Amino acid sequence: MKMKWTGVFPAVTTKFTENDELDFETFDLNLEAQLEAGAEGIILGGSLGEASVLSDDEKFELLSHTLSVVNGRVPVLLNIAESTTKKAIEVARKAESLGANGLMLLPPMRYYASPEETLVFFGAIAESTDLPIMIYNNPVDYKIEVTLDMFAALTKYDNIQAIKESTRDVSNVTRLINRFGDRFKIFTGVDPLAMESIVMGADGWVAGLVDAFPRETVAIFRLIKQNRIAEALTIYRWFLPVLELDVHPKLVQYIKMAEAATGLGTENVRAPRLAVEGAEREKVLKIINDALAVRPVLPVGSWGK
């Protein structure tokens, strides 16, 4: 499948049963909701997918299952977040052998790699696979920034094709376009900065709250691309308090709470994460329920297959 780097790519949550096993029944319910709403790609095993607590077997089982359910309707990408180059290459090759359509790639985990080390890491993985790659640039959470000069060095790898822009600096979208034109496709990766980034020219949105609100997320993206800015802004202003749950350390718990509230998931997380309780829980539920109480009617044609 040729990668089409555009549209909303949900970073889906990993669903667990009460017995802490993979919950494919609930996962499939959510996955179909994403596809029905018009998602144009699926990303597995990201931060929101609780990658750090999944075994390799679980990651690959999740990938194989998703590829089977999606059945070619949209690309399926596996996130790679590994501590060593050797392990990252192993994951990339295994993902390719199982039929993944692409990869999302983080810098080395748990080591503050220098720019040179980061570039060698990315290059080694790119050379190990034919799969198209999105570089996830999130210096806020992962402490390593991929600078414009570093991206310039990565242009020699044809399969490094896209950037998940999560620096929290909206101007970086413009800087990337000014420097590279359309060499890299740019995806906004911070929900509460999504509309601003798409207006500035981002090609897509790796989204989190889409897991609970797929139609609204797709509608915002499509309306902006149709230059129906006022309509998109109305939805976005309604959505923003919920979107801000995406930039909290407990984003996994918060977004799973939203999934449960909209009937698209459960709140089950894997330890060391714990369920949100007390005043914090009430605060988050109020944000979600306040939004649900005035959920907007979406313009015709703004979402769907």
TrEMBL record:
Keywords tagged on the record: Lyase
Pfam families, per the entry? DHDPS
The answer to whether UniProt assigns keyword Manganese to this entry is no
Query: Which protein is depicted?
Result: Dihydrodipicolinate synthase family protein
Enumerate the residues binding pyruvate: V206
Residue numbers annotated as active site: Y136 (proton donor/acceptor), K164 (schiff-base intermediate with substrate)
Q: Is-annotated flag, keyword Phosphoprotein? A: no
Q: Which GO terms describe its molecular function?
A: 4-hydroxy-tetrahydrodipicolinate synthase activity
Family of this protein: Belongs to the DapA family.
For this protein, the record's SMART domains field holds:
DHDPS (SM01130)
In terms of superkingdom, the source organism counts as: Bacteria
